[in-house]
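Hello,

I think I submitted the uridine-5'-diphosphate job twice by accident. Can you confirm which output corresponds to this input? Input:
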Amino acid sequence: MTVAVVVGTRPEAIKLAPIVELLGSRALVIHTGQHYSASMSGTLTPHLGLPAPSPWSAARPATRSAQLGHLTAALGHVFTSRRPAVVVVHGDTTSALAGALAANTAGLPLVHVEAGLRSFDRTMPEEHHRVLIDHLADLCCAPTPTAHENLLAERIPPDRIQLTGNTIVEALEAALPSAEHQARTLAHFGLVNDGYVLATFHRPENVDQPDNLSTILAQLDSLPSPVLLPAHPRTRSRIDNYGLHEPTGALRLVEPLDYPDFLALACHAALIISDSGGIQEEATVLKRPILVVRRSTERPEIEGTFGQRTTPGPHLASLATHWLSNRPRKLAELASPYGDGRASRRIAHSLDAMANEITTAKTA
Ligand code: UDP
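Support: Only one job matched these inputs. Its output is below.
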């Protein structure tokens, strides 16, 4: 029995890879190409064994609604012709919502990995995507007890929810390079263990507003330690479009990194500053402190232990400097709130059970 796994963006590829590996030849991975630049998606393919984007992903509808329509129709076509037993989507992207809608219209069971996250911020398209997918799903795989509670609070029946943990834990463990590779990566960028800040920014609330983006870059540039920022294509294009100045101080912008290289740098950073969801989770596995620059968050678990959420503004540099000089001592002893490294096995087991149930029903 085939399990269709819909992948569109970098974090989906990273976090679904351990499930795809466990499914082996039963996995039909469909890459929608939502992250289509080579720096975002192409570099993941050799590391994670994911297929190249599907041919129909070359069409780039100009609006989000047109993209949703295009992806839903294309995925619907794949599901109707291949008839997988189950469809798996991850998180809150347009690809995930399209996969959920297409599975629903094709009458196929749907599994949502990383279900139940809620920012309660209705200005974020992702929040609407998550809610819609969770209510369509036949099985919601909640990564944390908070996500589990969120689903119950929305009256999703308990038998459609499984507390699995987040697959990021085992995805990271599989991709973390050797100590030699880590040392080489730091040396390549002229960085030393615990002597730099690693930053990433890509959320519209930070990079689509020229004032916010220029404040963030200026604040990072004024830090007392070197700051490396692998720039997401969206961030890079906004910097160019807004005509923002190249940094002249601590900040250095580089191209997005391969996942193992990024992990090597995250592993030894004195502080991470980011608006990324996945990097927040990784910081708890790597035991690194993190400042999350967001208006709202769907991942409250790091607050007060591994890090702190803040908004963009002129206070950013002093807050970061405070975290740099007051390193939390006990991070190494804290368990990650995102799981025990067995989430993918639990999910693969449930997928097998669902597929078997369908086969039995068909042959009865
Ligand atoms: N990442 C990467 N290379 C980079 C920056 C990030 O491989 O240059 C990885 C990172 O380790 C994490 C994922 O990309 O696993 C996060 O993706 P992103 O921040 O784009 O999305 P989000 O998690 O916010 O949805």
